[in-house]
Amino acid sequence: MSKPGLPQGTRDFGSQTVYKRNFIFETIRSVFELYGYEPLETPAMENLDTLLGKYGEEGDKLIFKILNNGLDHESKKDSARAAFENILAGKNDKVITERALRYDLTIPFARYVATHFHELSFPFRRYQLQPVWRADRPQKGRYREFYQCDADVVGSKSLMNEVELAQMYLTVFEKLGIDVELRINHRKILEGLSASCGGSKNTIPITMAIDKLDKVGIENVKNELQEKGLDEKQVEVIEKYLLIHGTNAEKVQQLTDVLPNTAAQSGLRELQYVLTFFERDRSKQSGSSGNIVLDFSLARGLNYYTGIIFEVRAKGVIIGSIGGGGRYDDLTGLFGVPGIPGVGISFGVDRIYDVMDELKLFPPTVQRSTQVLFFNLGEEAAFRCFDQMQELRRAGIRCELYHEYAKFDKQFKYAEKKNIPRVIIIGEDELLSGIAKVKDLRSGIQTEVPFGELVSVFNAEN
What we know:
By secondary structure, this protein is an alpha+beta fold. 41% of the residues lie in helices and 17% in strands. Strands 1-5-6-11-10-9-7-8 form an 8-stranded mixed beta sheet. Strands 13-12-14-15-16 form a 5-stranded mixed beta sheet. A 3-stranded antiparallel beta sheet has the order 2-4-3. Helix 1 runs antiparallel to helix 6 (160-176), helix 7 runs antiparallel to helix 13 (262-279) and helix 10 runs antiparallel to helix 11. The radius of gyration is 28 Å and the shape is elongated. The relative contact order is 0.11.
């Protein structure tokens, strides 16, 4: 008999964890709706053609493909063998797989917009809270199944969208109590860097190398760039670019010195426009504008970004990004509906949970376990307890009856193990007197309360 277990990179969630995760979901959802975003859900699986080629070479390797059913049927065995040869050679073959688990929520959203284009009112704002899957190497803060919470607006080129999305980030993390740094950059600046280092053919190699800076360090980035064919002078320009530091204003000046070309300066102007909203009157802003940082090393290794890009890092913990996003001005063009600009952000709930758990940021009120346990002291008492429980439940007080008649000690241990703070005892004497015994297990204090006053007593205490 095999030992039960979970696939690597996946997890079970007990009730206390679910309560905490729901607290995060509800906080994010409330801010999304505050800014006029509406909910959307898409299927867990998409056609493989929908996903492939949208995330870059590295991202495509992490897509979980779904094996077609019926491959063991006699009529399909020969074609399946040939198809597996293609798979082993690194090619995709529709005989083996035509579908995949979604890698993120953005591409399915773009597919949705392209499919329902004539039904939607633009600008169209949607949010989505659903799991995604990546065939990544599991480690702390990195899972193969995890939730994303996305907000996107399509059909508008206005930079006010970026301003509001940045503010949404700051508002959510302020509500969650997480001190964050919101890093921003612009893909046009990266294009400007490429223009100074061999042209557009080097955009993807440069972006992919820079995106690994935090993980591998600048020397390894330089080595990778040289391996990809960049010469010594080009690598030197990139090194100067990556060494830009200081305040946001100082970084702006240094970038102008390193990359005076048109593309880079165009991107820089858009970044400055967004920053202006957070610097003009800090006292009126929710969230700290000082937490918005220009980071020219930020690349966000997804090929579909075209404008401003975002990434959020939590302070005080060693973990990857807990949010990211950016502008993608022609994502729906991949699905035959060109010219629809869009921009969006994503929250990594699983990493946010790990940060809040490590820093002990969850409020005590998150736990929503049973508030009151009624002891089971026989059939007649159980009937009366049920009536009283229904009264309490109608008043919003969470309660339960111990499942069977048992000794006091056993029922007390059950309450303690489940962290139920209070118990109500109704036995023969209480049935005759109409007065229940209520014991607070935290303080040890026991009081007597008439049946008809239980609801008012608990409402007063809550």
